[in-house]
Amino acid sequence: PEDFVVFYSSRDEDGRLWCPDCRAVEDLVQRTFARADGPAALIVWVGQKPAWKSPSNAFRAQPWNVGSVPTVIRV
């Protein structure tokens, strides 16, 4: 199986992903990567919205260069 990194918004104080696009695909991502015979994924939480929007967010820089969440990268 292939390996992936999934970049998601962090969860807010209510336990919800703050990013609506991340919420929209959360079930699909969980189903895709939960199968024992399927691809493997490392989930990376990019931070709360203010931290994510900061140009100095570590995930916006090399080596990842993530420009939006959710982002899935094959490694």
Automatic annotation (TrEMBL):
SUPFAM superfamilies: Thioredoxin-like (SSF52833). InterPro entries: Thioredoxin-like_sf, TXNDC17-like, TXNDC17_dom. Pfam families: TXD17-like_Trx. GO terms for molecular function: protein-disulfide reductase [NAD(P)H] activity. Residues 4-75 form the Thioredoxin domain. GO terms for cellular component: cytosol. Belongs to the thioredoxin family. This is Thioredoxin domain-containing protein. It comes from Phlebiopsis gigantea (strain 11061_1 CR5-6) (White-rot fungus). The lineage of its organism: Eukaryota, Fungi, Dikarya, Basidiomycota, Agaricomycotina.
